[in-house]
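does this look right to u?? magnesium ion version
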Amino acid sequence: MQTQVQNESVENAIEKAKLYGMLKYLPDGQLTHAPFSLSPYSISVADLLEMTELTTYFSELMIRVSQDWAFLDQYLGPISKTDPFLKMLLDLREQEVTQSKQLLVQRNDFFLIKDDFSNGGQGSSSTGAVPSVSALRQVELNTVSASFPFLITQLVRLHQNLFEQNILEQIIPNNPLGPVVDAFAKAVQDYGSTDAVMLMVSQPAESNRFDQLGLEQLLWEKYKIMTVRKTLTEIYENGSLREGHLILAGKKVALTYYRAGYTPDDFRTSEALKGRQLIEASSTIQVPDLPMQLAGMKKIQQVLTHQEMLSAFASEEISKRFLNTFAAMHTLDEIIETPDGALSASEWASRNPEKYVLKPQREGGGNNYFGKDIPIKMADMQPEEKDAYVLMEKIEAETHPAILVVNGNAETLTSVSEIGRYGICFADNGGVESNEDVGYLVRTKAENVDEGGVCAGFACLNSLTKA
Ligand code: ADP
Ligand code: MG
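got this back:
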């Protein structure tokens, strides 16, 4: 329980959060504040530096992988036999009109592991200038719908304000929203049409609407670029093609930004697929384009944990740094060395489910299997379905006490924090033109909670402080 003084601070923080537009919709349509923490997460300068430096290399990796359709097809094609959603995505290639300009807005998520580095990442045997052990463990890299650039920028304002009132410690500055909006404006200008708009592809009922509104607002205030917000179905119903351009609301769409389209739920109607096909058939710049979306699949992440695969896309030195941050990932039938001898990964994970996370080719939270659900799910699978899943070593993140404020209530809980770095990369025909790290996201949640969604109410927005 909070003391009286702390209670007042919590009330004060909740009001400020609302003032700054840190809002989300509850399932009944009411507005509440987005969950946030009042305990900034402390990180060492070395870990922060390594994470930040890796952003541009990871962006470049995703650009390179996206340019290699044969590679994507080799590993995703077999899964599409049992996964209709993936098949639908792969089939979109037929509609795709070449737009050589690529804009990647990605977020690369990590945990910091407990202080024992003895079972350090995949590259822990490496020697040389690069540290051979690291506390960083990558959870996943999001190439589609890397959300929270607005809400986290507002949270930093809130934390900065509380620091100035001597309630919180000094936090590490962070403003991913500005660079994301600048990148969108540049893409609209690069498209070469004056008076063109950005299309925000959204889900029909979006609880995280304010994160999108904040972005739209800054794009208008700073650049006078209008955003047209539509679901995939509405795009089919209201959109058309004119000389290769996508036209909506009478305007050319220079840029299409996906905050939907990464889950089968977004394609419940056949019109939704036609909406996506219409986008593909136009020359609009897509954030992300289809190959970039596919490059972010968990199957591709798993394949790239193998050094020989990774080395096709990254130098030896950079590969080592990547490998240092990778948790072990396996196909279900992969034979691995275990304390019980050589076993299939699925057999080992069934015996030790608390050590793994079972992941299908999905984004957006709520799709993974944890703990005792893993053997149940695997026993339930047809043999041919197994290709569609990967097993990932469960990352044992460092824990810390944190005040978590969810829907008006504050609680102090033993927590873990997932740190994402935002990266923005422009490329043309695979050639990188600009590439930068633009800030961070921290999501803090109780240690016993598996999933990580902020709008689902599992995790709280947070900021970083120097250890
Ligand atoms: P999604 O695409 O649904 O966001 P993620 O791979 O990011 O899928 O998993 C969702 C959440 O599950 C993460 O935010 C994290 O909290 C938790 N999680 C995922 N993988 C691991 C892992 N290997 N170890 C521990 N927690 C994990
Ligand atoms: Mg995730």
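The CA atoms of residues 255 and 285 lie 5 Å apart. idk if thats expected tbh
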